TrEMBL record, chain B:
Pathway: Purine metabolism; IMP biosynthesis via de novo pathway; 5-amino-1-(5-phospho-D-ribosyl)imidazole from N(2)-formyl-N(1)-(5-phospho-D-ribosyl)glycinamide: step 1/2. PROSITE patterns: GATASE_TYPE_1 (PS51273). GO terms for biological process: 'de novo' IMP biosynthetic process. SMART domains: GATase_5. GO terms for molecular function: ATP binding; glutaminase activity; phosphoribosylformylglycinamidine synthase activity. GO terms for cellular component: cytoplasm. InterPro entries: Class_I_gatase-like (IPR029062), PRibForGlyAmidine_synth_PurQ (IPR010075). This is Phosphoribosylformylglycinamidine synthase subunit PurQ. It comes from Actinorhabdospora filicis. The gene is purQ. It is found in: Cytoplasm. It catalyses: L-glutamine + H2O = L-glutamate + NH4(+); N(2)-formyl-N(1)-(5-phospho-beta-D-ribosyl)glycinamide + L-glutamine + ATP + H2O = 2-formamido-N(1)-(5-O-phospho-beta-D-ribosyl)acetamidine + L-glutamate + ADP + phosphate + H(+). PANTHER family: PHOSPHORIBOSYLFORMYLGLYCINAMIDINE SYNTHASE SUBUNIT PURQ.
Automatic annotation (TrEMBL), chains C, D:
Belongs to the PurS family. Part of the FGAM synthase complex composed of 1 PurL, 1 PurQ and 2 PurS subunits. The lineage of its organism: Bacteria, Bacillati, Actinomycetota, Actinomycetes, Micromonosporales. Its EC number is 6.3.5.3. It catalyses: N(2)-formyl-N(1)-(5-phospho-beta-D-ribosyl)glycinamide + L-glutamine + ATP + H2O = 2-formamido-N(1)-(5-O-phospho-beta-D-ribosyl)acetamidine + L-glutamate + ADP + phosphate + H(+). Part of the phosphoribosylformylglycinamidine synthase complex involved in the purines biosynthetic pathway. Catalyzes the ATP-dependent conversion of formylglycinamide ribonucleotide (FGAR) and glutamine to yield formylglycinamidine ribonucleotide (FGAM) and glutamate. The FGAM synthase complex is composed of three subunits. PurQ produces an ammonia molecule by converting glutamine to glutamate. PurL transfers the ammonia molecule to FGAR to form FGAM in an ATP-dependent manner. GO terms for biological process: 'de novo' IMP biosynthetic process. This is Phosphoribosylformylglycinamidine synthase subunit PurS. Pathway: Purine metabolism; IMP biosynthesis via de novo pathway; 5-amino-1-(5-phospho-D-ribosyl)imidazole from N(2)-formyl-N(1)-(5-phospho-D-ribosyl)glycinamide: step 1/2.
Length: 624, 230, 80, 80
């Protein structure tokens, strides 16, 4: 290093000493780095060094640890999820599928629908209200990123024993969080599930679905294409939200007490999200954006690397331009921050002014933070270069973060209790044989929380905002009118869509293959009975630790079952989400594949509600 | 010429398009108005729709009251322009002092949505002439801050002058004082209510069609002849 | 930088459901000596330069408190 | 009767959407010198007899503040 630092004041020196740049990294190969604390294995760390040809900087290490985590890289599930692609029925409706922010299916030549389910289980256990609220916010941004106007949400919930004190902490908070965020966004909640089971005691499940509608011509993608295009960050300022994991990088010695840097909970602001939605839609309609990506769990790290990798180009970012809520944040914290209500836009330089004007109209912050750069002449995409006050802190191939993460073939082993479970048949249970026993059984069932009325929950959800809800609670599927369709000819009613989410962890515990099939079969039936034609499915796979071969077996079986069912039913899986590590100690939750099925009604006026309609109607039982 | 009815969009308004749809179904022309502009674009009446303007932070309607559009609207309302505030719109009218009282957090502290039976206590306002006095109607209610509160003196005055327009029947969803669901100003041109008439205008999506009467009432009040219910 | 603190409380005659809920939960915590719980807002206004009490009062009056149900008090935060 | 005052504020690093919304509205009221607004809770606990700070602290810990996102301070209200 040169001597020029000597003249600088103490604070300046301090800051620069802490700043781990690419230049410093190249000169200090032996620096001990806390990769294990960040969840990276020895071989993964070695691979990073190989990719970079030097040790990673602190910022790079943070980015790799995030992007190569189970959550972002799907390293344990990838080899299994391929089955969906292999077995999916061919489908001409599919405009975007697995790998995109959300799957998109065509409804007519002009109109498309996008939907997806996602989990927010762990955050909802730590801080139920905010965890669930930001879960809704996150899935809505996925839908928005596809070019769609979000039009509804649903939620499938799993809690521990209804009488357990912790359930009394978690359930009201989760429900108020979903209610607060969804209602405030103006998205009707058109259905979901609530199930109590002791297996979820330390691991409640909060899976949120959002659905949106778009003109097919407005479909957006995340590729940061067009060398010279401007990278714009839209929405909330960036704070120290959810940077707990990487705070280890902030302490000079890793034993430092990092209490100041403890994981900080993300707080959702649905008001800003609403403004984000309206401004993005206005920008799409005016043709102002080339590419767009929502900022979710992995914040800027994910958005920057994925957009650049998708275009196989490079990107240059001046990170200090990111508007901060806390001026003391360091570059790795800015990159890792999970602050909510943010989107990354790729904009042609001639349109930047228009983008800023739309943002200003809606009162949303918009800041140009970088540019798209060319691919390397040698091929393999470009470089992602991130500067912090003029010093380079990241210089890596974006594809190495986004696409080349580790892939594991985790060991799989059938659980030992399979034979026991198989032998323990329901037929062997005692049956009520007298009137009194029958009465007792019925009363017992009526009293179980799982069959009890859910109005305490559902009345906290606005199911009619937007004015297009044609069916919702207590029906088994939600039905929405697609506004503006069918208006010209009064004989042709408006189109509708139907959605249902279902899952049964107990069935899946007994037999994950069949249990997953039952989940999709139930959602499929619920959609069909409204009069809709099922056309697509999305799933959220909630399981224990992938490092447990028994859990991995459950997972593989469930995926296989789901993929086979999709092939038979003729509906493709268009996207979904995997949530692993739902376990307390060595005990995993019931394997819980949750499936959402989407259907179309060619005339929504003909939707069939579930109740008996008229006196004297004939009741017929179909099927076995 | 059909009546032109303005619907204001604030940042965070949610039922603005629903209100426009209801205006259209009632036979008038909806005119979108923007919170940031003072112009009322020559409309014959204005609806402040439901939603969470400015996130409903602090108190519902407290921040929206300072929007530029409210400057002109407050004067116009005092001059007799018919103004309907629904839910968040009602909160804004109270915070703007166009209507007395205030809407506070529900006594049970939760957001609550349900189909609500109401009695029309005053069918002489600009928005209720198509109802019979004492008529019972069903309109959805959905809010977290819908509990109407005013001091005893104000409440007595409202009752005495017949300015309670709607009252909750079959259970009060929020703990509102004296079961008040909606009130009017002395002149009867400004009406605010917590339930959502714009969500009870179509058989496909609503629990009833009872909400339509409020929109056809104001059209009649404006002396227009637009065909209702088309 | 200077900070003005604004305390906004519900008038005594106005129902405070949140305060009641807390009060009702106290016996379950084994707390019996508390006779009343009232929950209001504490608002911190940070000024660029000197604290401007008059401006803070105007903001409290127009926006932070609703005189129909609330009262407020304000003071400069000496600790800041 | 004695009163204990509990102030509950969001931790500094936690986003305060409410405070932000108010701060953004101030220029429309003609107020420009305020750089930040944070909104928390002010809670009055009234004791039958003497103020019991330890008990108040237990109540604050268990019911009034959410330790994941909030901090609290308490003091006896000398004015009461
Ligand atoms: N978490 C939830 N979110 C939204 N709607 C829900 C939720 N849980 C249940 N519902 C809705 O409430 C209704 C009744 O649910 P439930 O009692 O589980 O009935 P069923 O067992 O017949 O499916 C259904 O319309 C369902 O969609």
């Amino acid at each position: 290093m040169t001597g020029k630092h000597e003249a600088a004041d103490v604070e300046q020196v301090d800051q620069e000493l802490n700043l781990d740049t690419v230049e410093i990294a190249a000169k200090t190969p032996d620096e001990v780095q806390p990769y294990a604390e960040l969840g990276l294995r020895d071989d993964e760390y070695a691979k990073i060094r190989e990719i970079l040809g030097r040790r990673p900087t602190g910022s790079e290490l943070a980015m790799y640890s995030i992007m190569w985590s189970e959550h972002c890289s799907y390293k344990s599930s990838k080899v299994h999820l391929r089955k969906f692609g292999e077995k999916n029925p061919t489908n001409t409706r599919m405009l975007a599928g697995i790998g995109e922010n959300a799957g998109v299916v065509a409804i007519t030549d002009e109109l498309a629908v996008t939907f997806k389910v996602e989990s927010h289980n762990h955050p909802s256990y730590i801080e139920p209200h905010q965890g669930a609220a930001t879960g809704v916010g996150g899935i809505v941004r996925d839908i928005l990123a596809m070019g769609a106007r979000p039009i509804a949400v649903m939620d499938t919930l799993r809690f521990g024993d209804a009488e357990h004190p912790d359930t009394k902490r978690v359930l009201p908070g989760v429900v108020s969080g979903i209610s607060f965020y969804g209602n405030c966004l103006g998205l009707p909640n058109i259905g979901g599930e609530v199930v109590f089971d002791a297996s979820y005691q330390g691991n409640p499940l909060v899976n949120a679905l959002s659905v949106g509608v778009l003109p097919a011509s407005r479909l957006q993608n995340k590729a940061a294409s067009g060398v010279g295009n401007v990278v714009v960050l839209l929405g909330q300022k960036t704070g120290k939200d959810g940077i707990g994991g990487v705070s280890v990088l902030a302490s000079a010695t890793f034993e430092d007490d990092a209490t100041d840097n403890r994981p900080s909970v993300q707080v959702g602001d649905p008001f800003v999200e609403k403004l984000l939605i309206e401004s993005c839609l206005e920008m799409y309609d005016a043709g102002l954006v080339v590419g767009i990506q929502d900022l979710g769990g992995a914040g800027l790290t994910c958005a920057l690397s994925e957009t650049a990798a998708a275009a196989e180009l490079g990107m240059y970012v001046d990170l200090e331009r990111v508007p901060l809520r806390d001026a003391t944040m360091e570059p790795h914290e800015v990159l890792a921050s999970e602050s909510q209500e943010r989107m990354l836009l790729i904009v042609n330089p001639s349109k930047v002014e228009d983008v800023l004007a739309v943002a200003e109209k809606w009162g949303v912050l918009a800041t140009a933070i970088g540019t798209v750069t060319a691919a390397s002449p040698e091929g393999g995409g470009g470089r992602l270069i991130i500067n912090w006050h003029g010093q380079t802190v990241v210089d890596c191939p974006p594809g190495s973060l986004a696409d080349d993460g580790p892939v594991y073939h985790r060991p799989i082993k059938e659980p030992n209790d399979r034979a026991l479970i198989a032998a323990d048949r329901a037929e062997t249970l005692p049956r009520p044989s007298t009137d009194a026993e029958l009465r007792e059984t019925v009363l017992k069932m009526a009293a179980t929380p799982n069959l009890a009325d859910k109005t305490w929950i559902t009345e906290q959800y606005d199911d009619m905002v937007g004015g297009n809800t044609a069916l919702s609670m207590p029906d088994d599927a939600g039905v929405l009118r697609l506004d503006g369709t069918g208006a010209v000819d009064p004989n042709i009613g408006p189109l509708g869509i139907a959605l249902s989410t279902d899952g049964n962890g107990r069935f899946a515990r007994l037999d994950p293959y069949t249990g997953a099939q039952l989940a999709i079969a139930e959602a499929y039936r619920n959609v069909a009975v409204t009069g809709a034609t099922p056309i697509a499915a999305s799933d959220c796979l909630n399981f224990g630790s992938p490092e447990d071969p028994h859990v991995m077996w459950q997972f593989a079986q469930a995926v296989e079952g789901l993929a086979d069912a999709c092939a038979q039913l003729g509906v493709p899986i268009t996207g979904g989400n995997v949530s692993f590590y739902n376990q307390t100690g060595m005990t995993a939750i019931h394997p819980t594949p949750v499936v959402a099925v989407l259907g179309v009604l060619d005339d929504v006026r003909r939707r069939v509600p579930m109740g008996f309609a008229n006196d004297g109607d004939v009741i017929i039982l179909l099927g076995e | 010429m059909t009546a032109r009815i303005g619907v204001v969009t604030f940042p965070g308004s949610l039922d603005d398009r629903d209100a426009q749809r209801a205006v259209r179904l009632a036979g008038a022309t909806p005119v979108p108005l923007w919170h940031g502009e003072t112009a009322l674009r020559g409309v014959d009446a204005v609806i402040l729709p439901g939603g969470f303007s400015y996130g409903d932070y602090l108190r519902g309607g407290a921040i929206a009251r300072f929007a530029p559009v409210m400057e002109t609207l407050i004067d116009a309302a005092k001059g007799g322009l018919p103004v309907l505030g629904i839910c968040n719109g009602f909160q804004i009218l109270c915070e703007s002092h166009l209507l007395p009282g205030v809407l506070t957090r529900n006594a049970h502290m939760r957001f609550r949505r349900r189909s609500q039976r109401l009695r029309v206590e005053n069918s002489a306002t600009a928005f209720t002439s198509h109802f019979d006095p004492g008529q019972e109607i069903v309109i959805p209610v959905k809010n977290g801050e819908g509990r109407y509160v005013a001091d005893e003196h104000t409440l007595d005055e409202l009752e005495g002058e017949g300015r309670v327009v709607f009252r909750y029947l079959d259970g009060n969803p929020s703990g509102a004082l004296r079961d008040i669901a909606g009130v009017t100003n002395a002149a009867g041109n400004v009406v605010g209510l917590m339930p959502h008439p714009e969500h009870a205008v179509e058989a496909l999506t609503g629990a009833s069609l009872d909400g339509l009467g409020m929109f056809t009432s104001v059209i009649a009040h404006l002396g227009q002849t637009a065909a209702a219910g088309s | 930088m200077a900070r003005v603190l604004v305390d906004v409380m519900l008038k005594p005659e106005i129902l405070d459901p949140q305060g009641e809920a807390v009060a009702n939960a106290l016996p379950r915590l084994g707390v019996n000596g508390i006779t009343s719980v009232r929950i209001g807002k504490r608002i911190e206004l940070d000024f660029e330069g000197e604290a401007d009490l008059e401006q803070a009062r105007a903001v409290a009056d127009a926006l932070l408190a609703n005189p129909v149900i609330e009262t407020f008090t304000l003071r400069v935060d000496e600790g800041s």
